[in-house]
Design goal:
The chain has helices at residues 9-22, 25-34, 41-48, 52-64, 84-97; strands at 39-40, 68-73, 76-81. The chain is of the alpha+beta class. Strand 2 (68-73) and strand 3 form a beta hairpin. The longest helix has 14 residues, at 9-22.
């Protein structure tokens, strides 16, 4: 098999990390929710049906992989997808695997 182009090992490692952290149904649910826009932690926990502690662990992994970012306003923490590239990846996955849903962005 002929491979076109060159691949940077650091880029491949980063891609593998992102895919690894996305390869969890609960984290994918969070990411699909965030495709609709920024949400606070309490709202995310309620909508995806996770306890605060479980959600915190998932968000920590997603944040560590650079998939989500957060901002804090007083006592409230808001999460959003970290970059246009992440939005595009999640939207593509949603388009392929969630046929009945449409992105309203």
């Amino acid at each position: 098999m002929k491979i076109h182009g060159t691949f940077n090992e650091d880029d491949l490692e980063r891609a593998a990390l992102v895919l690894k952290e996305m390869a969890n149904t609960r984290r994918l649910k969070v990411l699909c929710l965030l495709l609709g826009g920024e949400r606070c932690v309490g709202e995310i926990a309620h909508l995806v049906g996770l306890s605060s502690s479980a959600l915190s662990q998932h968000l920590s992994r997603l944040r560590g992989a650079g998939i989500v970012s957060c901002r804090k306003t007083r006592q409230t923490v808001y999460y959003h997808l970290a970059s246009p590239a992440v939005v595009e990846m999640i939207d593509t996955l949603r388009g392929h695997f969630c046929k009945g849903e449409k992105n309203d962005n």
